[in-house]
Amino acid sequence: MTLVLRGVVLTSGHLEVILSSCSNLKKLTIDISELPSKLQLTGTVIDVVILECVGVKEIDLHAACLRTLVCKIKNDVTFFFSFVPMLENVMVSRCFQLFKYSYIFGDHARDLPNQVKSLTLQFFADQDYFPIANPTEMKTFRKLTNLRLIPVTSHGILQIFELSRLLGDFPLLQSLTFAVFKVVSLTERTRSRRPPPSLKGHNRLKEVIYYGFDGSEIEMEFVVYILKCAIVLEQVFLSPRVLSYFSCAPHPEANASFSEEKRNSIQQKLHGQALSSKAWVIIE
Protein backbone atom coordinates (compact mmCIF):
# COMPACT_ATOMS: atom_id res chain seq x y z
CA MET A 1 0.00 0.00 0.00
CA THR A 2 3.02 2.29 0.49
CA LEU A 3 6.02 2.51 -1.83
CA VAL A 4 9.15 4.63 -1.24
CA LEU A 5 11.75 4.99 -3.99
CA ARG A 6 14.90 6.74 -2.77
CA GLY A 7 18.11 7.34 -4.70
CA VAL A 8 16.91 5.48 -7.80
CA VAL A 9 17.17 6.10 -11.53
CA LEU A 10 13.86 5.73 -13.36
CA THR A 11 13.90 5.41 -17.14
CA SER A 12 11.02 6.08 -19.52
CA GLY A 13 8.04 3.82 -18.76
CA HIS A 14 9.68 2.36 -15.64
CA LEU A 15 7.35 4.02 -13.13
CA GLU A 16 4.27 3.15 -15.17
CA VAL A 17 5.20 -0.56 -14.99
CA ILE A 18 5.69 -0.31 -11.22
CA LEU A 19 2.34 1.41 -10.71
CA SER A 20 0.46 -1.07 -12.89
CA SER A 21 1.81 -3.97 -10.81
CA CYS A 22 0.82 -2.41 -7.46
CA SER A 23 -2.96 -2.74 -7.55
CA ASN A 24 -3.41 -1.68 -3.88
CA LEU A 25 -0.93 1.21 -3.80
CA LYS A 26 -2.18 4.22 -1.81
CA LYS A 27 0.95 6.33 -1.21
CA LEU A 28 3.97 6.82 -3.46
CA THR A 29 7.11 8.71 -2.41
CA ILE A 30 10.04 9.35 -4.78
CA ASP A 31 12.99 10.99 -3.06
CA ILE A 32 16.40 12.23 -4.29
CA SER A 33 16.09 10.36 -7.59
CA GLU A 34 16.64 10.81 -11.31
CA LEU A 35 13.44 10.81 -13.34
CA PRO A 36 12.75 10.52 -17.08
CA SER A 37 11.88 13.73 -18.95
CA LYS A 38 8.22 12.65 -19.16
CA LEU A 39 6.57 11.04 -16.17
CA GLN A 40 3.02 9.69 -16.06
CA LEU A 41 1.31 8.95 -12.74
CA THR A 42 -1.39 6.31 -13.04
CA GLY A 43 -3.02 3.54 -10.99
CA THR A 44 -4.76 3.54 -7.62
CA VAL A 45 -2.39 5.89 -5.80
CA ILE A 46 -4.01 8.49 -3.52
CA ASP A 47 -1.04 10.51 -2.22
CA VAL A 48 2.08 11.28 -4.30
CA VAL A 49 5.19 12.96 -2.89
CA ILE A 50 8.14 13.77 -5.19
CA LEU A 51 11.07 15.47 -3.41
CA GLU A 52 14.54 16.67 -4.44
CA CYS A 53 14.37 14.91 -7.85
CA VAL A 54 15.93 15.90 -11.18
CA GLY A 55 15.39 15.29 -14.89
CA VAL A 56 11.63 15.41 -15.27
CA LYS A 57 10.21 18.13 -17.51
CA GLU A 58 6.59 16.99 -17.83
CA ILE A 59 4.37 15.31 -15.24
CA ASP A 60 1.12 13.91 -16.60
CA LEU A 61 -1.42 13.11 -13.89
CA HIS A 62 -3.78 10.33 -14.96
CA ALA A 63 -4.72 8.78 -11.62
CA ALA A 64 -8.41 8.39 -10.85
CA CYS A 65 -7.93 8.21 -7.06
CA LEU A 66 -5.22 10.88 -6.61
CA ARG A 67 -6.11 13.35 -3.85
CA THR A 68 -2.81 15.00 -2.86
CA LEU A 69 0.23 15.92 -4.95
CA VAL A 70 3.42 17.28 -3.33
CA CYS A 71 6.36 18.12 -5.62
CA LYS A 72 9.76 19.69 -4.97
CA ILE A 73 11.69 19.43 -8.23
CA LYS A 74 15.13 20.78 -9.19
CA ASN A 75 14.26 21.87 -12.73
CA ASP A 76 11.44 23.46 -14.73
CA VAL A 77 8.31 21.32 -14.87
CA THR A 78 5.05 21.43 -16.83
CA PHE A 79 2.10 19.75 -15.09
CA PHE A 80 -0.77 18.19 -17.06
CA PHE A 81 -3.88 17.34 -15.03
CA SER A 82 -5.25 14.88 -17.60
CA PHE A 83 -7.54 12.80 -15.39
CA VAL A 84 -7.62 13.54 -11.65
CA PRO A 85 -11.33 13.64 -10.67
CA MET A 86 -10.50 13.28 -6.94
CA LEU A 87 -7.57 15.72 -6.68
CA GLU A 88 -8.00 18.19 -3.82
CA ASN A 89 -4.58 19.44 -2.70
CA VAL A 90 -1.59 20.56 -4.81
CA MET A 91 1.74 21.61 -3.26
CA VAL A 92 4.64 22.65 -5.51
CA SER A 93 8.10 23.92 -4.56
CA ARG A 94 11.27 24.51 -6.53
CA CYS A 95 14.47 23.45 -4.77
CA PHE A 96 16.34 26.67 -3.97
CA GLN A 97 18.65 27.71 -6.79
CA LEU A 98 20.06 31.13 -7.61
CA PHE A 99 18.67 31.35 -11.13
CA LYS A 100 15.36 31.96 -12.79
CA TYR A 101 12.78 29.25 -13.19
CA SER A 102 9.07 28.75 -13.63
CA TYR A 103 6.35 26.25 -12.99
CA ILE A 104 3.80 25.88 -15.74
CA PHE A 105 0.37 24.36 -15.42
CA GLY A 106 -0.14 23.17 -19.00
CA ASP A 107 -3.08 23.38 -21.38
CA HIS A 108 -4.83 20.42 -19.78
CA ALA A 109 -4.95 22.31 -16.50
CA ARG A 110 -7.64 24.50 -18.00
CA ASP A 111 -9.91 21.49 -17.63
CA LEU A 112 -8.90 20.92 -14.01
CA PRO A 113 -11.92 19.71 -12.02
CA ASN A 114 -13.50 22.17 -9.62
CA GLN A 115 -12.83 20.00 -6.57
CA VAL A 116 -9.20 21.25 -6.32
CA LYS A 117 -9.56 23.56 -3.34
CA SER A 118 -6.04 23.95 -1.95
CA LEU A 119 -2.90 25.19 -3.75
CA THR A 120 0.52 25.77 -2.16
CA LEU A 121 3.38 27.36 -4.12
CA GLN A 122 6.90 27.98 -2.83
CA PHE A 123 9.09 30.17 -5.06
CA PHE A 124 11.73 32.88 -5.30
CA ALA A 125 9.87 36.16 -5.51
CA ASP A 126 12.83 38.44 -6.32
CA GLN A 127 12.61 37.67 -10.02
CA ASP A 128 10.59 39.54 -12.61
CA TYR A 129 7.70 37.13 -12.75
CA PHE A 130 5.43 34.92 -10.70
CA PRO A 131 6.26 31.18 -10.57
CA ILE A 132 3.73 30.41 -13.28
CA ALA A 133 4.78 31.36 -16.79
CA ASN A 134 1.65 33.44 -17.39
CA PRO A 135 0.03 34.86 -14.24
CA THR A 136 -3.40 34.64 -15.89
CA GLU A 137 -3.07 30.85 -15.72
CA MET A 138 -3.86 31.22 -12.03
CA LYS A 139 -7.45 31.53 -13.25
CA THR A 140 -7.23 27.79 -13.85
CA PHE A 141 -7.77 27.54 -10.09
CA ARG A 142 -10.68 29.98 -9.77
CA LYS A 143 -12.54 27.50 -7.55
CA LEU A 144 -9.80 27.54 -4.90
CA THR A 145 -10.88 28.15 -1.34
CA ASN A 146 -7.40 27.78 0.22
CA LEU A 147 -4.28 29.42 -1.25
CA ARG A 148 -0.87 29.20 0.44
CA LEU A 149 2.05 31.17 -1.05
CA ILE A 150 5.60 30.72 0.25
CA PRO A 151 7.81 33.44 -1.27
CA VAL A 152 11.57 33.48 -0.66
CA THR A 153 12.21 37.19 -0.90
CA SER A 154 13.90 40.34 0.35
CA HIS A 155 10.80 42.37 -0.55
CA GLY A 156 7.42 43.06 1.01
CA ILE A 157 4.22 41.46 -0.24
CA LEU A 158 2.98 44.70 -1.80
CA GLN A 159 6.17 44.87 -3.88
CA ILE A 160 5.57 41.36 -5.23
CA PHE A 161 1.85 41.05 -5.79
CA GLU A 162 -0.83 43.27 -7.21
CA LEU A 163 -3.27 42.37 -4.47
CA SER A 164 -6.46 43.49 -6.16
CA ARG A 165 -5.60 41.24 -9.11
CA LEU A 166 -4.44 38.35 -6.92
CA LEU A 167 -7.66 38.32 -4.90
CA GLY A 168 -9.73 38.94 -8.01
CA ASP A 169 -8.39 35.76 -9.58
CA PHE A 170 -9.77 33.74 -6.65
CA PRO A 171 -13.37 34.87 -6.10
CA LEU A 172 -14.18 31.86 -3.85
CA LEU A 173 -11.06 32.13 -1.71
CA GLN A 174 -11.76 31.74 2.02
CA SER A 175 -8.25 31.27 3.42
CA LEU A 176 -5.05 33.02 2.27
CA THR A 177 -1.68 32.19 3.83
CA PHE A 178 1.70 33.79 3.28
CA ALA A 179 4.72 32.03 4.79
CA VAL A 180 7.58 34.37 3.91
CA PHE A 181 11.27 33.43 3.97
CA LYS A 182 13.21 36.70 4.31
CA VAL A 183 16.60 36.69 2.58
CA VAL A 184 19.29 39.20 1.66
CA SER A 185 18.64 40.53 -1.84
CA LEU A 186 19.87 38.10 -4.49
CA THR A 187 20.64 40.90 -6.93
CA GLU A 188 21.92 44.44 -6.77
CA ARG A 189 18.66 45.78 -8.14
CA THR A 190 16.06 47.30 -5.87
CA ARG A 191 12.43 46.74 -6.63
CA SER A 192 10.32 49.88 -6.88
CA ARG A 193 7.16 50.20 -4.87
CA ARG A 194 3.95 49.39 -6.68
CA PRO A 195 1.32 52.13 -6.61
CA PRO A 196 -1.23 51.70 -3.80
CA PRO A 197 -3.58 48.82 -4.72
CA SER A 198 -7.09 49.75 -5.79
CA LEU A 199 -9.54 48.71 -3.09
CA LYS A 200 -11.93 46.02 -4.28
CA GLY A 201 -14.24 44.15 -1.92
CA HIS A 202 -13.82 40.39 -1.53
CA ASN A 203 -16.98 38.70 -0.25
CA ARG A 204 -15.64 35.20 0.65
CA LEU A 205 -12.27 35.73 2.34
CA LYS A 206 -12.54 34.82 6.03
CA GLU A 207 -8.99 34.11 7.13
CA VAL A 208 -5.56 35.57 6.35
CA ILE A 209 -2.43 34.08 7.91
CA TYR A 210 0.98 35.71 7.59
CA TYR A 211 4.10 33.91 8.84
CA GLY A 212 7.41 35.74 8.61
CA PHE A 213 5.65 39.02 9.40
CA ASP A 214 8.02 41.67 10.81
CA GLY A 215 5.70 44.66 11.16
CA SER A 216 7.48 46.85 8.60
CA GLU A 217 5.64 49.77 7.01
CA ILE A 218 4.96 47.94 3.75
CA GLU A 219 3.71 44.84 5.56
CA MET A 220 1.39 46.97 7.67
CA GLU A 221 0.01 48.45 4.43
CA PHE A 222 -0.75 44.92 3.26
CA VAL A 223 -2.66 44.06 6.44
CA VAL A 224 -4.63 47.31 6.30
CA TYR A 225 -5.57 46.55 2.69
CA ILE A 226 -6.87 43.12 3.69
CA LEU A 227 -8.84 44.56 6.61
CA LYS A 228 -10.48 47.13 4.36
CA CYS A 229 -11.36 44.86 1.42
CA ALA A 230 -12.43 41.55 3.04
CA ILE A 231 -16.14 42.01 3.67
CA VAL A 232 -16.71 38.86 5.78
CA LEU A 233 -13.23 38.63 7.32
CA GLU A 234 -13.10 36.78 10.64
CA GLN A 235 -9.41 36.50 11.48
CA VAL A 236 -6.01 37.93 10.58
CA PHE A 237 -3.14 36.01 12.19
CA LEU A 238 0.29 37.64 12.18
CA SER A 239 3.45 35.85 13.31
CA PRO A 240 7.20 36.49 12.97
CA ARG A 241 7.76 32.70 12.99
CA VAL A 242 9.00 31.05 9.79
CA LEU A 243 7.52 27.70 8.78
CA SER A 244 8.99 25.05 6.49
CA TYR A 245 6.15 23.29 4.66
CA PHE A 246 8.46 21.22 2.46
CA SER A 247 11.06 20.27 5.06
CA CYS A 248 11.03 18.16 8.20
CA ALA A 249 13.80 20.27 9.74
CA PRO A 250 12.60 23.34 11.69
CA HIS A 251 13.60 26.78 10.42
CA PRO A 252 16.02 28.74 12.66
CA GLU A 253 13.28 31.32 13.24
CA ALA A 254 10.54 28.78 13.90
CA ASN A 255 10.10 30.10 17.47
CA ALA A 256 10.50 33.84 16.82
CA SER A 257 8.16 36.18 18.71
CA PHE A 258 7.39 39.90 19.07
CA SER A 259 8.22 41.89 22.14
CA GLU A 260 5.21 43.12 24.11
CA GLU A 261 5.96 46.70 23.00
CA LYS A 262 6.10 45.71 19.31
CA ARG A 263 2.91 43.66 19.58
CA ASN A 264 1.02 46.57 21.18
CA SER A 265 2.30 49.00 18.54
CA ILE A 266 1.05 46.78 15.68
CA GLN A 267 -2.29 46.28 17.41
CA GLN A 268 -2.81 50.02 17.85
CA LYS A 269 -2.02 50.79 14.21
CA LEU A 270 -4.55 48.23 12.99
CA HIS A 271 -7.30 49.08 15.47
CA GLY A 272 -10.52 50.22 13.78
CA GLN A 273 -9.31 49.49 10.23
CA ALA A 274 -11.47 46.42 9.56
CA LEU A 275 -14.54 46.66 7.37
CA SER A 276 -15.96 43.45 8.83
CA SER A 277 -17.48 43.69 12.30
CA LYS A 278 -16.41 40.07 12.96
CA ALA A 279 -12.72 40.59 12.23
CA TRP A 280 -10.11 39.78 14.86
CA VAL A 281 -6.41 40.54 14.54
CA ILE A 282 -4.25 38.01 16.39
CA ILE A 283 -0.56 38.88 16.82
CA GLU A 284 1.64 36.03 17.99
UniProtKB/TrEMBL annotation:
Residues 2-240 form the At1g61320/AtMIF1 LRR domain. This is At1g61320/AtMIF1 LRR domain-containing protein. It comes from Capsicum annuum (Capsicum pepper). The lineage of its organism: Eukaryota, Viridiplantae, Streptophyta, Embryophyta, Tracheophyta.
